[in-house]
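Exercise 7. Predict the structure of Copper transport protein from Exophiala oligosperma.
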Amino acid sequence: MDSGSMSMSNMDMSTTMSITMSTTGSPTSTMSGMSMASSTGSSMPMSSSSMMGMDSMAMVFFTSSSTPLYSWAWTPDTTGQYAGTCIFLIAFAAIFRALLAVRVRFYDFLALAKHRQYGGVSSQPLTDAKPISRPWRANEAVMIAMVDVILAGLSYLLMIAVMTMNVGYFLSVLAGVFLGSVVFGHFIANSAAH
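Solution. The predicted structure, encoded as tokens:
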């Protein structure tokens, strides 16, 4: 038995493997539908997507104006579309910081809204309000839970944008956090949670 047949003895070779030359002149291999036998005798399917090379999974920052964001449909084709995507990320991160300020000062905003609803004007600015012990109320708990879910969703979407490793997207998220902190940071700075 030669060395080539020994290394393939545990593989089901019912599929094909093709090697082609890419435009850069380096060989590219493609496998489709191959299954590999494990030591227990069962076979594990290997899709072509799981056979990506480690070099394509390298986590390094890069610059490109055509990096997809959230879906293949959202792939900028022009520099203007890329700039628009970066502006969107700045606004998105700033909105995240605004909602974070609302979440931190939720009970203060709620008390102020109820006070104004009944015709009163607060004698104390919102940033100077003292935290008070409140009884648990189902409607308030549901509102806080909704804000928490929205915050979690926004933070995960921002994380996905950063994980594209596109320098422009990364800097846009940071710029949005900076802008949101400048505009809404005073609400968080004076809270008991800070």
